[in-house]
């Protein structure tokens, strides 16, 4: 653990150490600079913060509970496992914290059309929800493969009045959905705000998303001190692009004694095209606006990824995570599809909570590392989303793997 | 002056010659490796026969976020054929044995960054490429990379768009050389029914900040549009339309020839536009 104080980013150019930046076509530079400027003003505007906090309380249902998971605590043999219940947010995941903030920003900028990409569908549902609430036009881009494996969320988005556009390019998952959303934004930039859902993309997005998601960590820090009387030994969260994890971690970043673990998707194992663990198989590159760790071949072409969970199935990781890893501040691990599915079941049986498959990766790692925990350790896990959307996917996975 | 001229790229020499002849330029985009690199060599020769001034070679990337469907599919075909930068440079060396046509690459940053930026840029220059247009390298990030290109004797072709404010244009053209590429509308590459109405205004704005030649592109698909674009600009760029026609022509020599004639008609439409 480094003793020097952590300098988090971003700097004025949107960098976290050597990662981040603004690698986008020129057409997007003016709108990104405008967004940087407008967000800077909004952030300091008490009226904006009041409006955001009001909606977070009354519409999203914040603060979410920090739940003492008694049976899981016993299973792991430590002093306490606490679940930050983001699955209890309106729409069923943490994604709405950011969608809401960015929709308010869009209104402030006079943009009445919002677009978003979605992988697991939770960000799409959250964005469709706030767009409906504010009366904004909403278009969601989603890979055709993801639309199939997250059909429930497609139905929800359409019921909320959003247009869901299938993306059939390439691998037909999250990465292609982001490219297609960026193409829409490039074309309709004067009327449209792009609500990016993860701590990814060009500056200022990684920062905006982190800030709006940091409500998770701020609440958790207050709650654990009250409920456990101390700071936790470790924070654990899954990492796709990295929004729920950075949201939990960031407010603890200067608490040097608190360990942080981000869990990536190990898929079918760390072999080319079989996983989405960027720190296990990737190297630094530039994709979709940002410089960060990427799964790519030696020519710089982006590699295929695989994860049972659509929300973690992405070739790049948010730039701030790359920096936190270099600093040694956050530890990154990965678990397989099988371990995630087993954790999905275990949490249901132990705690009566069916987590999202993304979230199940974080649980799986805690269970796998049971030997690591001492009797007086206190863990906080981000229960980032609920698993209703995944029941068909889990059933299909089990059928395929028990034959 | 003499030594300066020696160092000029083929792109710069071409614009100097066009200016002396009182002519507008024609830049043609094709994806390198669609359907394979042997075909690309033939296409470059065909473009030269058709009177094209500069060939812009798209380097296929797995995630081309600035491209519309035509060029996306073209890139996929090129990747499926196994195209990579090493192969493109080899192909360019082959072309250079017989042709001096100015060649520039249209590419995404990761393809240069992953194998090592400096080394790759030097290889490009050595192969006989004259300039690079790096789609996702805005002026904010260009600094050191722009110097690397300059040291290698390559032009850095920069983009200005309808959303670029004038103060920003001034900063962008500081890194630019060869020519400045004005994107005629917001959006991705692709074929449009008509030229954006504010394209002329964009060129006018750019004239106020640079003396470099200005090329206008994105969406031009027929001789009439090409001629209209050439009214204000020093050169026009035609991309997706050529990619589409050549793909649809397939392996038929007759149909390939027909595409070449159609390209020639666009070039001629541009050449007939008088220089004010």
Topology at a glance:
The complex is a heterodimer of chains A (403) and B (276).
Chain A: E1 15-16, E2 19-23, H1 26-43, H2 46-60, E3 66-68, H3 70-76, E4 80-85, H4 95-108, E5 113-118, H5 122-134, E6 137-143, H6 144-149, H7 151-159, E7 163-167, H8 174-187, E8 192-194, H9 205-213, H10 215-227, E9 234-238, H11 243-249, E10 259-267, H12 278-281, E11 283-287, E12 289-294, H13 319-326, E13 331-336, H14 337-351, H15 357-368, E14 378-383, H16 391-402
Parallel strand pairs in A: 4-14, 5-6, 5-8, 6-7, 9-10, 9-14, 10-13
Antiparallel strand pairs in A: 1-2, 2-12, 3-4, 11-12
Chain B: H1 2-6, H2 10-21, E1 25-31, H3 37-49, E2 54-58, H4 69-80, H5 85-96, E3 103-107, H6 109-113, H7 117-127, E4 131-134, H8 139-151, E5 155-156, E6 158-160, H9 166-175, E7 180-183, H10 199-207, E8 214-217, H11 223-232, E9 235-238, H12 240-249, H13 253-271
Parallel strand pairs in B: 1-2, 1-9, 2-3, 3-4, 4-5, 6-7, 7-8, 8-9
Helix pairs in contact in B: 3-5, 11-13, 12-13
Please, could you describe this protein's structure?
The complex is a heterodimer of chains A (403) and B (276). The model of chain A has no long low-confidence stretch (mean pLDDT 95). Chain A is of the alpha/beta class and 403 residues long. Chain A has helices spanning 26-43, 46-60, 70-76, 95-108, 122-134, 144-149, 151-159, 174-187, 205-213, 215-227, 243-249, 278-281, 319-326, 337-351, 357-368, 391-402; strands spanning 15-16, 19-23, 66-68, 80-85, 113-118, 137-143, 163-167, 192-194, 234-238, 259-267, 283-287, 289-294, 331-336, 378-383. Chain A has a six-stranded mixed β-sheet with strand order 3-4-14-9-10-13, sandwiched between helices. Chain A has a four-stranded antiparallel β-sheet with strand order 1-2-12-11. Chain A has 16 helices and 14 strands. Chain B has a single domain (2-271), classed as Alpha-Beta Barrel (TIM Barrel). Helix content of chain B is 51%, strand content 14%. Chain B has a nine-stranded parallel β-sheet. Chain B is globular. In chain B, 54% of the residues are buried. The A-B interface holds A 13, 21-27, 29-31, 169-170, 175-176, 178-179, 182-183, 186-190, 283, 285-289, 294, 296, 298-302 and B 61-66, 68, 72, 76, 79, 84-85, 108-115, 135-141, 158-165, 168, 172, 183, 186-188.
């Amino acid at each position: 653990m480094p003793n020097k104080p952590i300098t988090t980013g971003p700097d004025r150019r949107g960098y976290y150490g050597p990662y981040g930046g603004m690698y986008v076509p020129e057409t997007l530079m003016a709108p990104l600079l405008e967004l940087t400027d407008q967000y800077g003003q909004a952030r300091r505007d008490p009226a904006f913060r009041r409006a955001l906090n009001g909606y977070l309380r009354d519409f999203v249902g914040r603060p979410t509970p920090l739940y003492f998971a008694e049976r899981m605590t016993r299973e792991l043999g430590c002093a306490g496992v606490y679940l930050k219940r983001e699955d209890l947010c309106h729409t069923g995941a943490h994604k709405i914290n950011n969608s809401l903030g960015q929709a308010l920003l869009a209104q402030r900028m006079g943009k009445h059309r919002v677009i978003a990409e979605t992988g697991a569908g939770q960000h799409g549902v959250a964005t469709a929800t706030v767009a409906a609430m504010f009366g904004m036009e909403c278009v969601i881009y989603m890979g055709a493969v993801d639309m199939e494996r997250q059909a429930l969320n497609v139905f929800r988005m359409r019921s909320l009045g959003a247009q869901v556009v299938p993306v059939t390019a390439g691998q037909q998952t999250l990465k292609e959905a982001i490219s297609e959303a960026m193409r829409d934004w490039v074309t309709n930039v004067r009327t449209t705000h792009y609500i990016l859902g993860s701590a990814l993309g060009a500056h200022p997005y990684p920062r905006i998303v982190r800030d709006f998601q940091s409500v998770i960590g701020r609440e958790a820090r207050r709650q654990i001190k009250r409920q456990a009387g101390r700071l936790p030994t470790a924070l654990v969260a899954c990492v796709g692009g990295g929004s729920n994890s950075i949201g939990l971690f960031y407010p603890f970043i200067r608490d040097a004694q608190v360990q942080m673990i981000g869990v990536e998707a190990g898929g079918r194992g760390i072999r080319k095209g079989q996983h989405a663990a960027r720190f296990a198989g990737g190297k630094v590159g530039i994709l979709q606006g940002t410089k960060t760790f990427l799964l790519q071949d030696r020519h710089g072409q982006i590699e295929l990824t695989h994860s049972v969970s659509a929300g973690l199935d992405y070739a790049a990781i948010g730039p701030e995570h790359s920096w936190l890893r270099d600093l040694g501040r956050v530890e990154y691990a990965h678990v397989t599809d099988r371990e995630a599915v087993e954790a999905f079941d275990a949490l249901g049986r132990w705690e009566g909570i069916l987590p999202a498959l993304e979230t199940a990766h974080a649980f799986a790692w805690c269970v796998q590392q049971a030997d690591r925990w001492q009797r007086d350790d206190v863990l906080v896990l981000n229960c980032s989303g609920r698993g209703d959307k995944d029941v068909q996917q889990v059933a299909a996975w089990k059928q395929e793997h028990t034959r | 002056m003499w030594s300066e001229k020696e160092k000029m790229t083929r792109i710069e020499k071409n614009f100097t010659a066009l200016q002396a002849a009182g002519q507008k330029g024609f830049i043609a985009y094709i994806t390198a490796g669609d359907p394979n690199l042997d075909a690309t060599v033939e296409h470059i020769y065909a473009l030269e026969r058709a009177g094209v001034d500069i060939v812009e070679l798209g380097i296929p990337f797995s995630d081309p976020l600035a491209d519309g469907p035509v060029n996306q599919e073209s890139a996929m075909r090129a990747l499926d054929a196994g195209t990579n930068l090493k192969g493109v440079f080899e192909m360019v060396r082959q072309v250079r044995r017989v042709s001096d046509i100015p060649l520039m690459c249209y590419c995404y940053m990761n393809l240069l960054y992953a194998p090592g930026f400096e080394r790759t840029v030097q290889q490009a220059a050595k192969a006989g490429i004259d300039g690079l247009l790096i789609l996702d390298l805005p002026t904010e990030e260009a600094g050191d990379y722009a110097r690397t290109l300059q040291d290698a004797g390559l032009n850095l072709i920069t983009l200005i768009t309808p959303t670029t404010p004038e103060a920003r244009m001034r900063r962008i053209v500081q890194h630019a050389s060869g020519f400045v590429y004005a994107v005629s509308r917001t959006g991705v590459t692709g074929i449009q029914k008509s030229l954006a109405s504010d394209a002329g205004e964009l060129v006018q704005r750019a004239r106020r900040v640079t003396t470099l030649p200005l090329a206008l592109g994105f969406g031009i698909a027929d001789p009439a549009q090409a001629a209209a674009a050439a009214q204000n600009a020093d050169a026009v760029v035609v991309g997706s339309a050529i990619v589409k026609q050549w793909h649809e022509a397939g392996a038929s020599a007759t149909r390939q020839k027909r595409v070449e004639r159609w390209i020639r008609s666009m070039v001629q439409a541009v050449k007939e536009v008088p220089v004010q």
